[in-house]
Design goal:
It contains 3 helices and 4 strands; from the N terminus they run ββααββα. It is α+β, with helices and mostly antiparallel strands. The protein has a 4-stranded antiparallel sheet with strand order 1-2-4-3. The chain is globular and about 35 Å long. 26% of the residues are buried.
């Protein structure tokens, strides 16, 4: 199944840093998401877009993960030639990750 089946996402930006949150619809799915949506997996998912480090922060009380991705916006809003200089579409892109149901 896709991550979008069990979670939603929001994104923000600051300079060349993109910040993406993944929030479980149902708190029971948080552990499944936390096991499978790692910083390494997110970095691999955004190969060619994210050129710096990806750090994951866990917020279990909200059923959420927050990913801070360095060098992700082509230099930042005022320097990027990208159509989506703020990186808002990255929240939809992360929800395309495949999640294994067996661990659910």
């Amino acid at each position: 199944m896709k991550l979008r089946d069990i979670a939603h996402s929001r994104t923000g930006d600051k300079g060349d840093i993109s910040n993406i949150s993944v929030i479980a619809f149902d708190p029971k799915d948080y552990d499944l998401i936390a096991r499978q949506v790692t910083a390494d997996r997110v970095k691999a998912h955004f190969t060619g877009i994210v050129h710096g480090d990806v750090v994951r922060y866990e917020i279990p009380s909200l059923g959420a993960l927050n990913f801070v991705m360095q060098q992700a916006l082509g230099g930042g809003v005022t320097r990027s030639l990208a159509l989506d200089a703020h990186g808002k579409c990255l929240s939809s892109a992360i929800l395309e990750l495949e999640i294994t149901k067996d661990e659910r």
